[in-house]
Design goal:
193 residues, single chain, mainly alpha, 5% strand, two-stranded antiparallel sheet
Length: 193
């Protein structure tokens, strides 16, 4: 259980932050940047939910689950698997979380016509904010993959799959809130030459 009774601790004033293992890292460390970007994606989803809460209840519920899972992902990333006993079982993203996202994507995508070109972010406010969240989730994914390839660092395979599916979900959700793709703004290659 997390207890936050004091918001400022001053321990980060030296430019470091604590991982879940207690290890301190610079605030610009790639692991910290990775879970910070996951948090940023989560905040963008929170903004999107302001536009889905009343008009798109099913999608909003899915987004709520994703927001909770993104905190799980942040906890996963904040506690590197070093093989050492931490005295507790660290929270990890698991295959069932990925599978649930895939099922949600399939549910939403069932009513959307296939694309013949790329979609520009927009159409409706809800869609535009979902696209913004998608781009931040993709950035988090790139950082996580980079971290996973760094010597001495580990990132769970399910964690990388999960963030990949989050951005896929956000793309499909943006199309769904755009009248199942009917209000999508489509890219016209070379249109303004």
């Amino acid at each position: 259980m997390v207890v936050l009774n004091k918001i400022y601790t001053r321990t980060g004033d030296d430019g470091t932050t604590a991982l879940g293992s207690g290890e301190r890292r610079p605030k610009y460390d790639l692991r910290v940047t990775s879970y910070g970007t996951v948090d940023e994606a989560n905040a963008c989803i929170g903004m999107a939910r302001l536009h889905t809460a009343s008009a798109h209840a099913e999608i909003d519920a899915m987004l709520g689950r994703i927001q909770n899972d993104l905190f799980d992902l942040g906890a996963d990333l904040a506690t590197p698997d070093t093989g050492q006993d931490l005295g507790y079982e660290p929270l990890r993203i698991v295959a069932s979380q990925v599978a649930r996202l895939e099922a949600d994507i399939d549910t939403l995508n069932r009513n959307i016509k296939p694309l013949r070109t790329f979609v520009l972010p927009g159409g409706s406010t809800a869609a535009a904010t979902l696209h913004l969240a998608r781009t931040v989730a993709r950035r988090a994914e790139r950082l996580m993959v980079e971290l996973s390839l760094k010597d001495g660092e580990t990132v769970g395979a399910e964690a990388i799959k999960y963030i990949n599916r989050v951005s896929d979900f956000l793309f499909v959700a943006a199309r769904a809130v755009n009248d199942n793709g009917e209000s999508d703004v489509l890219w016209v290659p070379g249109q303004n030459r």
